[in-house]
Design a protein that fits this description.
Helix content: 55-70%
Structural class: mainly alpha
Number of strands: 1
Number of domains: 1
Length: 161
């Protein structure tokens, strides 16, 4: 079944925005979790808290709820939460990081749109090459990778992750 590669693609995209404390995260994200000071710059406390909340919601392959992989109702709930927290984080992002946050959050919103158009049915999505390709295109966008690297560097320096 092709659901596993699809899940891996989703997980990779989730992790760029989630501060990277998973074993499946990118190299940049791994560095972030290893080098963080644990100290939050008070200027960015609200932003750091929003980032932490999003990280918690994105933990695991489909947010906090692994049953979302096979249950469209759970998937819809997980992505509604992830999208809402992403938009909240975007609103709190410092100006110096705004363009990068916009790039990353827009990709999450775009993925959610694709999921919604396909009724959040991942096992069905896994059988649709055009949908898989659209999701993969979002996940492999170099602009997102670059934005993620800068975003994670900021989190390391200011949020202690």
């Amino acid at each position: 079944m092709r659901a596993r590669p699809l899940v891996a693609t989703f997980a990779c995209l989730f992790l760029f925005a989630s501060c990277g404390d998973s074993d499946n995260s990118s190299t940049a994200s791994t560095v972030v979790s290893q080098t963080g000071t644990g100290k939050v710059n008070p200027t960015y406390a609200e932003f750091c808290e929003a980032s932490s909340n999003l990280n918690a919601a994105m933990s695991g392959p489909h947010g906090e709820n692994p049953s979302a992989i096979t249950d469209p109702i759970e998937m819809k709930a997980a992505w509604a939460n992830i999208t809402e927290l992403s938009i909240e984080l975007q609103a709190l992002t410092p100006k110096t990081l705004k363009k990068d946050a916009d790039t990353m959050i827009e990709s999450i919103v775009a993925m959610n749109k694709i999921f919604k158009e396909n009724n959040y049915e991942l096992l069905v999505i896994a059988k649709k090459p055009t949908v898989r390709d659209a999701l993969s295109k979002i996940a492999s966008n170099p602009a997102i990778t670059e934005a993620s690297t800068r975003f994670n560097t900021f989190l390391t320096q200011n949020c202690g992750v």
